[in-house]
Write a structure and sequence with these properties.
heterodimer, A: alpha/beta, five-stranded parallel sheet, elongated, disordered C terminus, B: mainly alpha, 72% helix, globular
Amino acid sequence: MAPFPLPLEALLTKGGAYFLYLLIGIGFGYALEISGFAISTKLAGQFYFKDMTVLKVMFTAIVVAMVLIFGATALGLLDFNLIWVNPTYLWPGIVGGLIMGVGFIVGGFCPGTSLVSMATFKIDGLFFALGSLVGIFVFGETVDLFYEWWNGSYFGRVTLMDFFGLPAGVVVVLVVLMALFMFWGGEKLEAIFGKKDLSKEPKWRYAAAGTLLAGAVAVLLIGQPTTADKWAQLEPTKQAALDNREVQVSPAELLATTENKQVNLVLLDVRDEADYNLFHLRGAQHLPLEQVAGAIPGLLLEPAANTVYILMSNDEAAATEAWKVMSAESVPNVYILEGGINNWLMTFIANTPEIQPTPTPAGMDRLNYMFPAALGDRYEAADPSPHEYELEFLPKIQLQTKRGPSGGGCG
Amino acid sequence: MATVTQAKPKASNKLKAFLFSRPEKPYVNPYLGGVVLGIVLFLAFFLTGNGLGASGGLNRYIVYLEDLIAPEHVDRVAYLLKMAGGVKNPLDDWIVFVTGGAILGGFISGWQHGRLKVETNKGPQISVRTRWILAFTGGAIMSFGARMARGCTSGQALSGGATLSAGSWAVMLSIFAGGYALAYFLRKAWN
């Protein structure tokens, strides 16, 4: 499994993790200050084409970080599924962005740069930061008025790769090319509007641009690991968990867990639609096996750390396949219903005489029961009362602490 | 007593000398600054899985104050409840430390390079007072927008830009669009 990002709290305790975040913040503020971002007139110069520092610093930072991130994921060092990718709320993002642009040109800063400006004793930076506190306060007090809109136009964890349908390597190369083109254009504008002498710019920037582009091409050539690659890397440890039956949860434990208010239980039924319509557990979501891979980005955004996924098929075969996909893609706390729906029915069928076993077993991962009608979860066995069944079981579910982002870039 | 009154100006002079006496250095080349910032951003993602942010930390400072003054009010508003409901401490979050660190890092660099200076940067055609009013107003507008977009230039444009989030690229383009759309009307403030 990719060793990064680190399981910070397990490794450093909470205090240590927060200290690391403080160091990262110091690096952040330091980088902004050395770039001249404490000076409002320098920042505002961007919008009059006189001083393109904002464009140069921002896009250099973005493409450098991007090439390093996707390089690290390509080499299997970094797990992309465990890093925070801002979810897309399209219209709040666009309208909020336009408002931010207005604030930028009126005030001359963005929140981060105003803090650095304030820290170097600039009074306009202090006023911007104070204004920021007021703007944030007003938002918190008024968001209830447009809460629905603010949570709407939600597309989840979508990347430019998803949007354009291109592999990550291609997007990385294209973004680097676009940035280099913008740098070239920006310098031309500085020469015209800012009367800058371009011949005085350092020559090493050509070498830097070449290195960056070479890095992006390397990312493209190596390619990103597929689910199968990730599973191959995990197989030695994870296959043992399957073989030792550490992740197969008995029907009795599942029933008991539905009563446990501390667990956010998500039941995923990976069978085909016909079987699902005949019978499924109450609350089970239908997610056919072939759609599991596509559902991963949504599952990764599941905010609650106490979420437990239970996969089920008629026996265990399809659920086990789905388990491998979800494990390879770093979804935490995934389990399989032991013996599948057939075992569930065998355990809880007592009060449901209308469901009868088939005369002979139906075969591998097929339903061994006959139903008078496709009633879905309206059979009693779909939602048995936990108090009627006093069953012993060996508990398997253990909540794993989540690794990676704790839910929000600017959260 | 006399020694105390004598020592006081002495100590403040010492502090002044410590803060302001270092020789002023020029800013680095913007591409170099960008490379440093990009490496910090990469390390943030690589080590922790989280990016950088500024408005998120400020948000939690404000909610912390609100929770001190009016805890019942915080418990009634869904948006505030998520951060400070019941016994939750809004400061118990990684972003608070990144934001605090940014202030510290800015100060360290400003001190090291002799750029700590009490001043107001503004265009030549406006007064200092006008500049302060504009800065305050702009800060309020910007941060209102930042919370609406769920992240500012750091949390959306930088962090989401580097991870290729589609929504963050939309936010980034909107910020530039909003700035350029209004730049003409504010030319007097800056030129």
